[in-house]
Amino acid sequence: MPTPTGKSTRAERQAQPLAREVAEQIAADKGVCIRPVSLRRTDIATGATEIVDVPCGSTLESRCPACAKRKRSIRRSQCEEGWHLAEDPTVTPDEPSEVQRAWIERRAVVTAERDRLVHAGEAAFDEVAALDQAIADLDAEITASGLRGSVSRGSSASGSARRVRSTKRRQDAPDLPKRQMAKTTVGRSYEDPATGRVFRPSLFLTLTCDTYGRVKADGTPVDPSTYDYRRAARDALHFSKLIDRFVQNLR
User: Fold this and answer.
1) pLDDT in tens, 63-73
2) What CA–CA distance (Å, rounded) separates 173 from 166?
3) Do the strands 190-191 and 49-54 form a parallel or antiparallel pair, or are they unpaired?
């Protein structure tokens, strides 16, 4: 009850729910991230900048229930799709249907007619353009019918040039060992010598930067005069870009 002066007591104020906690509870009930990460997005054409909130992606329900639930659903889907298998699954493509065969045959006829007119030199520009448009329409129908890939050799389904990332190593980079690519999706398994349990991680990776100088147990340099502070600060600033580039080369 309010005091005679009209003010509530401290115990009464402590019993009142916090507005922030109520907002977080409503967001969690609606499946919205309660700890979004703010990112700055800049349009390189106009220079306009805006702040965009993206989900935090936490896997701990105590930190963000909505993101943890979403991550749990993704892991469940991965298990259902076979990410837990110990051997590569054998996938046999289905037999093409009559409709799919009909679209492929029709495209072959139109392509043959176009090639005949072009090689004979009898086709006008409008006729070739019309046949090219017909082939593009047939490609769209072929994709919509459930066939994957492209009929034309060396062409992409979207018609655009394939994007190639440069993985050329810098001149000052050391020669690192290379491993042959294995045509398998199942990784190496590791056995715990204590319990005998077998683990098969999807990616096991250890990255270590070169030393900047000897340090003590608390992380402070043994000799501050020889410790490479400049390189340590530069690596800390560009570490995310180094990891991104490493992942690009790894792929």
Assistant:
1) 888 899 888 88
2) 15
3) unpaired
DSSP-H helix ranges across the chain: 10-15, 19-29, 65-80, 98-120, 125-144, 229-237, 239-250
Residue among 163, 203, 172 nearest 186 (CA): 203
pTM: predicted TM-score of the whole model, two decimal places: 0.39
Instruction: Yes or no: say if 55 and 74 are a contact pair by the CB < 8 Å rule.
Output: no
What is the DSSP-derived secondary structure letter of residue 149?
A: S
Which position has the token pair 């909505």? 66
In terms of phi and psi (left: phi > 0; alpha: psi -120 to 50; beta: otherwise), the region of 78 is alpha
CA separation for the pair 84, 78 (Å, rounded): 8
pLDDT tens sequence across 140-163 = 899 888 888 877 765 444 455 666
> Where are the strands (E) in 10-167, listed by range?
37-42, 49-54
In order, the DSSP letters of 90-117 are ---PPPPPHHHHHHHHHHHHHHHHHHHH
Rounded alpha-carbon distances, angstroms, from residue 176 to 45, 96, 141, 179: 39, 46, 47, 10
